[in-house]
């Protein structure tokens, strides 16, 4: 009986592993191979060694894209987690104590649904929606109101100094709802006795948040930071739709590596695009590994 389970396990996993190898592992390996070639999509790829990588490190757009990723890597997790934690705390233990029991604010169940609504929308729909919000004329939701009030429009996506920050705002708006629900689920698993005992001892909401909620949510925060970091690398759809032009404009002010990959594929530079893809792959893996390593700490247990 003991030996009979291994054929069953192998048979059960054979199909999923084969599909994963064919549709995930094989394309990744092929991308690595193409990154050492010059290929325009027809004929046979021409082996050129590390020339694509040499060109990449000499490409100003590559370094500009990395700068933008650095901004997104710092700001997107920080802002999203801060806002999400604040709302999740209010929805779970931010209300008044009733009969000694900590509760969320009034209407917390309704607010959870409202916050989660952006997750239902496709990324392309969100991008088109904010094209209207940021439109730099009378039809724009923000600039249109400003112009009717006799004020100068802001030109969110046209001004190179604020275009990336405008897209960052969309990324935060899109992500907050999911992490409010995620942190709410984590907080709901914390025994209310801990909050109630701290409240009886005179702990303020500030103390409850920093001395109880944050330590007990550390593993969830760690996962959220990794996911948001990956989202900062994988923001092609929003950037491509909201940017001016097809090169992360204006003047490359919003370009990211995924946009550069797409732009080079449009001009049939598949070898160089593959090299950029390999760089993006290693940047993402390195970020995730470093984040998990640096943020690792002993689990806080409670019963």
The computed structural class is mainly alpha
Mean pLDDT: 87
Compute the number of helices. Answer: 13
The helicity comes to 55-70%
CATH fold-type name? MetI-like fold
Strand content: under 5%
Q: Gyration radius, to the nearest Å?
A: 24 Å
Q: What about the largest sheet? A: 2 strands, antiparallel
Low-confidence stretches: none
Distance between the termini: 38 Å
CATH superfamily (homologous) name: MetI-like
Number of domains: 1
- Tally of DSSP β-strands: 2
H/E element order: HEEHHHHHHHHHHHH
Report strand order across the widest sheet.
1-2
Task: Quickly name the level 1 CATH class.
Answer: Mainly Alpha
Taken from the alpha-carbon principal axes, the silhouette is: globular
Oligomer: single chain
- Shape-level CATH architecture: Orthogonal Bundle
Main location: membrane
Protein name: Sugar ABC transporter permease
Membrane topology: Multi-pass membrane protein
Pfam families: BPD_transp_1 (PF00528)
Write up this protein.
The structure is a single chain. This protein is mainly alpha-helical and 303 residues long. The chain has a single domain (60-294), classed as MetI-like (MetI-like fold). 69% of the residues lie in helices and 1% in strands. Strands 1-2 form a two-stranded antiparallel ribbon. Strand 1 and strand 2 (46-47) form a beta hairpin. The protein is globular. The two termini are 38 Å apart. The mean pLDDT is 87. Belongs to the binding-protein-dependent transport system permease family. This is Sugar ABC transporter permease. It is found in: Cell membrane.
